[in-house]
Amino acid sequence: MAEALIKPLKLVGLMLLAFSSAMAVSSCHRGFGAVSLLAFSFLLDLGMLFHCLRLYARTPLASPGRPEILKIAVWLLVTMLVVTFFQFLEIWFMTMHREN
User: Fold this and answer.
1) Which residues contact 71 (CB under 8 A, 6 or more apart)?
2) Are 43 and 17 in contact (CB under 8 A)?
3) Alpha carbon distance, N-terminus to C-terminus of the chain
């Protein structure tokens, strides 16, 4: 029963993420830097992070070396996501300051 509820919640979450990304792109007046930063952070980085987490969850603990490589990949992807989030905030603050 719980797994049947999780799939629609994942779909709703991804739809909300796509909607908020589209709103962020439209609010930054289609600046190439902001659009590419948003595309990298949400499409590439977050997608790869979800994929690595799914692989990590499916990997048996007894397999040699693979869980450690996936832990490193997840750590790097989360770090890149945090850095791009702070860069996106910087762009947002710069555009808010320019409008006032």
Assistant:
1) 56
2) no
3) 51
Cα–Cα nearest to 50, from 28, 78, 24: 78
Kindly write down the DSSP assignment for every residue of 26-89, as one continuous string: HHTTT-HHHHHHHIIIIIIIHHHHHHHHHHHHHS-TTSSSHHHHHHHHHHHHHHHHHHHHHHHH
Closest CA to 72 of 55, 85, 89, 92: 55
Q: What is the pTM of this model?
A: 0.64
What are the domain boundaries of the chain? 2-99
Q: What is the pLDDT of residues 54-88, one digit of tens each?
A: 888 888 877 787 888 888 999 999 998 888 778 77
Write the single-letter amino acid at 62: A
Question: Quick one: which of 45, 54, 35, 43 has its CA closest to 17?
Answer: 43
Helices 46-58 & 66-99 angle (0-180, nearest 10): 160
